[in-house]
Write a structure and sequence with these properties.
14 helices, Dihydrodipicolinate Reductase, domain 2, six-stranded parallel β-sheet, Rossmann fold, homodimer, alpha/beta, ten-stranded mixed β-sheet, Alpha-Beta Plaits, elongated, 16 strands, 3 domains
Chain lengths: ~425, ~425
């Protein structure tokens, strides 16, 4: 197998340019490692005239990604267009139908259509790989699918949106409000065109849905991921969590419980001294737990030209070397339909609220918790002014359903100034 | 390809038992993930009568590992005997000659004979895999060989001997001397029969030599790894490093320089807040750096039944799935002969010494450094008694060769109470 592997690259943005640079710069290295050359034969993008700082003249150009996907001189269709529908989906479908292998960095596409695309690819004898779709340069798809294949996976966790991690760690280090750092992130170009994809947890939720599918042998079910964004995290939360030895992270957790598959992407408190707690800036971290291996922690850049292109090339090299794995580690047609479970494994909770400064207010709150069988581990009332009292409560282990009932009951007591913020304290 | 993959397991110690447990417990999971069953057909060990807490009656027994390696009903020979020579080597050679694939956890064997064994295996059309040989459950071989295959690797680093990391972190947390914690580790059964393999850096050096071969496409050359153990690290070093925001780690570093391949396994100072600095107890960490991906950090258990067996199974699953990679990521016959370079990339150094308490002593030491062009960043003289003065110096960036010359010159000044301890401060 020494014939060249021929790539068609659709989408020449940041990541596409990165892939082209690697193929051009490391032609010899790649040929030595793969036992055959890797070539780009054709590319497509919306704007042919734009200077992208990389040589494109030697490649055939297609205006239409679908036409690129069908070219006879393309073995592997590399989809770097993005978006969960439209041209990316049409082109990937066309590539599969034409018997091509597909490599994509598109988490939204796979979170919504991964099951159908994987079944189509496997039915056509093609492979569909997506290392770059989850956590950028971190090789979590390969590690989970291959390195931990001898394990029953017990839990997967991850900080998988670098922008959110940047915002949360920058709030703490600079003592800035959420709004101020959000603006900063926007000015730095860190945010998606629709920032809800980042700060609403949607982008990271897509990634968690893909990891959960491999981990638990279930069909991708993005709708089953409980999503909660970081928009309500205040500098007070950051500071008070830090006082108690915690950091706030937008953390995804998926685990199989007796009740079904629990998957949630939400702001959580983690110990400041843990690997997750130590993660600063726009970095990503994926934590994989298996019954034999224990805990494996993977840390790296979750975005950017080089890291994401490195992950794309990992899939390309895999195909060049003749490794042909099912998309989610076992045949897609045999994946189980997940039974989504309420996110309700017991955990301690952090509860921040502002009470009206009147006698008996705290007692009423405590009674609401007590009525749901939730006991209080620690409670602090902070300095206050203007008739309102900030209160912080850390509960003992509680069910989220009980906590939500207690919070609903609190709303009826007329002692709350605003809706309480409740954050799970994750055992990492 | 739905016929069972048949394993013959030689060596039924901790790891062998772990592998057998996984194959028995996860038969269905493995069959789903591999597309075919994984079976054990035969085993061998020295003592047939010992109760190992696992069912063995269903497997054929061989007293001789070489006989096991040649059995017709074995597809993959799993070598878990250990040792760089003797029965492990003979059996692996026999398995290769008989056309079997081989999975081994034996770093000593591969560090000494990996090149010859890889060439033999590849010549015979077999594969030889060794994920479990480096850093236990951490999937560093697969990540380096496959996930980072699009990168020129610029540096690999690792804390890869859990016993040494246990000793160094326990000295700090408990304030105990090296000798006291060494005894503790011995009592806990953490030490090899010959403890020099651990504390002398040999075991970790074997692992670094294997990583370097994959990273830089060079033949395994254990002799080129500069080894320095942790035996001379005192509780004073631990405490003084901590005072300055550092931790002492037995750290392996391999990097390609203009002078050749630099590989060293030695105690180093790393920032206490870095992932390497944060690594506690018997854990392992591997840090891989590539020109596109940047830095990838992998953390997990470096030893033990479950983690090591998980890594063995990763290789077994790879073979079951039909993935057939060259041992070191490209054909062994084409690996370059490394040009070993002196470990001489510039770095700041930590220098601890005890001076005779007499006028001008410090000036003489400073003069020795100055004569080699080494400037001093920080210097502290500690409280002293009985006519001797503990002194700590942190240099600006210096070459190790210059530092060694300065230390040799110091010996001629007659102001040293004992030989100085010099530790590189690694930029991690």
């Amino acid at each position: 197998m020494t014939s060249p592997l021929r790539l068609g690259i659709a989408g020449i943005g940041t990541v596409g340019v990165g892939v082209i640079r690697i193929v051009q710069r490391h032609a010899d290295l790649l040929a030595a490692r793969c036992g055959r050359p890797i070539q780009i034969t054709a590319v497509s993008a919306r704007d042919r005239s734009r200077d992208r700082g990389v040589r494109l003249g030697e490649y055939a150009w297609e205006d239409d990604a679908v036409a690129l996907a069908r070219r006879d001189d393309v073995d592997v269709f590399v989809e770097l267009i993005g978006g969960d529908d439209g041209p990316a989906k049409a082109a990937v479908e066309a590539a599969i139908a034409a018997g091509k292998d597909v490599v994509t960095a598109n988490k939204a596409l796979l979170a919504h259509h991964g099951q159908a695309l994987a079944e189509a690819a496997e039915g056509a004898g093609g492979v569909l790989r997506f290392e770059a779709a989850v956590a950028g340069g971190i090789p979590c798809i390969k590690v989970l699918t291959e390195s931990l294949a001898g394990n029953e996976i017990t839990r997967v966790m991850g900080v998988m949106n670098g922008t959110c991690n940047y915002i949360l760690t920058r709030m703490e280090s600079a003592g800035l409000t959420y709004d101020a750092v959000f603006q900063e992130a926007s000015d730095l170009g860190y945010l998606e065109a629709d920032p809800t994809l980042d700060v609403g947890g949607i982008d990271a939720g897509h990634k968690l849905a893909l990891l959960a599918s491999i981990a638990f042998g279930t069909k991708v079910d993005f709708g089953a991921v409980k999503l909660e964004g970081i928009e309500r995290i205040s500098i007070d939360d950051i500071n008070r969590a830090a006082d108690m030895g915690f950091r706030v992270k937008l953390l995804g957790v998926a685990q199989m419980t007796g009740r079904g598959l629990e998957a949630r992407m939400q702001p959580c408190l983690v110990p400041a001294a843990s690997p997750l707690g130590q993660l600063e800036g726009p970095m990503n971290m994926v934590v994989l737990e298996g019954d034999s291996v224990g805990q494996i922690v993977l840390r790296g850049a979750g975005a950017g030209e080089g890291p994401t292109a490195s992950a794309v090339m990992s899939d390309v090299v895999e195909i060049a070397r003749g490794q042909r794995l099912p998309t989610f580690g076992q045949p897609a047609s045999g994946l189980a339909t997940p039974r989504p479970a309420e996110a309700n494994t017991p955990a301690p909770y952090y509860l921040r609220m502002v009470l009206k400064d009147r006698p008996g207010a705290l007692a009423k709150i405590a009674a609401c918790l007590g009525a749901e069988g939730i006991s209080i581990d620690r409670m602090r009332q902070y300095d206050h002014a203007e008739g309102s009292a900030p209160v912080l409560i850390v509960t003992h282990k509680a069910m989220r359903s009980g906590l939500d009932a207690a919070i609903a009951a609190m709303a009826g007591t007329d002692v709350l100034e605003s809706e309480p913020v409740a954050l799970r304290i994750e055992d990492v």
